[in-house]
Each structure stands twice: as C-alpha cells, then as structure tokens.
C-alpha cells in the first residue's frame, strides 16, 4: 500500500502543496517554489486534467507544449486500458469518477480480501485528495465490513485506525481522532497520510477549517492545567506566564468562564483569579440529589397514574 517506508504518498503531498498555494498566509516567495514543485509533479505523472484546472484557476501558467505532451501520453495510456478493460469507455468522465469506476471494476475482479482492502484504501486516498467526506465515510465502512466478515492482518487494521483518525480530525471529532492515533502509535506504518502537523496549524490542509476552534480548545486545556495548581492567582502573574497582556487574559478568561469551560471567578478589584472547582465529594453529592429527585418524581407520577385509573 505504501510507496516507500517512512515516506508520504506523492499525491497527498501534492494535494497539500495545492492547498498551500491557495492559502493567503503563505508568503509569495514560498509560493514561487511551490509552483515549481507542483508543475514538476504534474509533468512527472502527466496530470493533464489537473493541469488544465490549475491553469483555469490562475494557479499555474499554461505551457502549451507541456499540455500537448501530457494529453498525448494520456491518450496513449487510455488506449492501453481499453485493451485490458472491456468497459473502459464507461470510465471517461471527470477524473475522480473515472478513477473510482476503475477501482470498482478491479475490486469486483479481485478475490483475495487483502487486495480488496488495498483497493479500498486507494479509494480512501482519492477521497482525501478531493476532501470528499462522503466517499471517505463509505470507504471506511467498506474496510470495516471486510475486516469483520473476512478478517485482516494487523497492518491493515492499524492502517484503518489512522484513516479513521484523519477523518475524525477533518470533521472536528478531535477526541476520537486522538484516541485512534494513540492506539496506532506502537505499530504505526501509515506514513502516506499526513502533510505534517507542524507549529503552523493553520497552514495544514486538514486542520485549517477548524483552526480557531482547535486553538480555542487547546487554550482552554492549558488554562485549566495552569489553574489546577492554585486556589488563587493574580491575573498579572497568569498573563506574564503566558506572555500576553493583562487585558487579553482578562477578556479571554471571562469568555471561557461564561461558557462554563473554566471553574473560576475573577475579582476585578483585587486583580485576582479564584478557582472554584467542584471537589469529588461535592460532585457525588449533587449527583445523588439529582438522582433522588428523579426517583421521587417518577414515584409520584406512578402513584398519580394509579389514582387516575381508579
């Protein structure tokens, strides 16, 4: 399944470069090199349809000679496929649909479950290239079906975990994504998926749509961990610890407290934060009272129901 151990799948690397090219926060000087790398990838694999799209979107300039050469090689390859696959004429639609149809044909003609799963993994990679979440979800379900009905080796099971984790991360289910990634670390071999989660999270193709949400959730956890060590702390000291202004930390904490994400209160006069985390005994007491009220109300309703029946 992997082109080379420890390396990323080339088409997913290309997808991330295309994302960076379209991102306004990437400096123009970096985009110059990105364009060169993208153009080299397109030429290496004769990606004429994608080249046409990028030219139409003004992301690349048109080199007619290169375009003609690509198209000629594409036509030659299509003729070879026509000879091998009788129904190849049905696969001449858009690039994504054509690739999907060919994968379906190959899957239907494959007997070994491992090879069938590999073909579905290729479909998953296609889904991640186009960020087609419907295709990704259906492909994950199909792999799970193969694993449940026919079994599979540990590497493919692990591979599925990572793809599911990436899907969860891309759809803002970070907790589940983290559990899946952590569960696959000890035997991780699926290097072809990630563009790399660096410090520039907002430049990551998968996390960019959720950048503000993700960073807000991270700050909530960090602030909670900081406050766990104190019953009270000055706002100035906390601001200094995080390298921000007092006004910023004051506004930030006010929002998180109002949203119920932090258990503390602000004493504006004294400039102090006072934590009021509920202890375990208090939480258990509140839960018991709540459950008792529920049982009493249920008993009263049942008693009233019998009276009405009479």
TrEMBL record:
Gene3D superfamilies in the record: 1.25.40.570
InterPro entries for the chain: PCI_dom (IPR000717), Rpn7/CSN1 (IPR019585), Rpn7_N (IPR045135), RPN7_PSMD6_C (IPR049549), WH_DNA-bd_sf (IPR036390)
All copies of domain PCI, residue ranges: 94-280
SMART domains tied to this protein: PINT
Keywords on record: Coiled coil, Proteasome
Chain segments annotated as transmembrane: none
GO BP: proteasome-mediated ubiquitin-dependent protein catabolic process
Coiled-coil ranges from the UniProt annotation: 71-98
Pfam families: PCI, RPN7, RPN7_PSMD6_C
GO cellular component: proteasome complex
Family annotation (PANTHER family): 26S PROTEASOME NON-ATPASE REGULATORY SUBUNIT 6, 26S PROTESOME SUBUNIT 6
Protein name in the entry: PCI domain-containing protein
């Amino acid at each position: 399944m992997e082109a080379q151990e420890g390396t990323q799948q080339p088409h997913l690397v290309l997808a991330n470069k295309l994302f960076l090219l379209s991102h306004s926060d990437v400096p123009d000087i970096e985009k110059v090199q990105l364009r060169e790398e993208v153009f080299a990838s397109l030429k290496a694999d004769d990606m004429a349809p994608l080249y046409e799209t990028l030219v139409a979107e003004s992301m690349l300039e048109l080199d007619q000679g290169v375009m003609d050469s690509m198209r000629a090689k594409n036509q030659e390859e299509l003729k070879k496929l026509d000879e091998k696959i009788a129904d190849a004429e049905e696969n001449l639609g858009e690039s994504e649909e054509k690739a999907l149809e060919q994968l379906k044909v190959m899957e239907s003609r494959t007997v070994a479950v491992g090879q069938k799963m590999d073909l579905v993994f290729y479909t998953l990679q296609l889904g991640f290239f186009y960020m087609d979440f419907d295709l990704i979800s259906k492909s994950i379900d199909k792999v799970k079906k193969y694993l449940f009905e026919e079994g599979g080796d540990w590497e493919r099971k692990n591979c599925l975990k990572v793809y599911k984790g990436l899907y969860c991360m891309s759809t803002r289910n970070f907790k589940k994504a983290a559990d899946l990634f952590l569960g696959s670390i000890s035997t991780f071999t699926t290097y072809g998926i990630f563009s790399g989660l660096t410090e520039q999270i907002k430049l990551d193709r998968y996390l960019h749509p959720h950048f503000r949400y993700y960073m807000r959730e991270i700050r909530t956890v960090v602030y909670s961990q900081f406050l766990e060590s104190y019953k009270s702390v000055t706002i100035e000291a906390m601001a200094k610890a995080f390298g921000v202004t007092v006004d910023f930390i004051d506004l930030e904490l006010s929002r998180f407290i109002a949203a119920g994400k932090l258990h503390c209160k602000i004493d504006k006069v004294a400039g102090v934060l006072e934590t009021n985390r509920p202890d375990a005994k208090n939480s258990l007491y509140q839960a018991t009272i709540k459950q008792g009220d529920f049982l009493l109300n249920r008993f009263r309703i049942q008693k009233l129901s019998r009276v009405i029946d009479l």
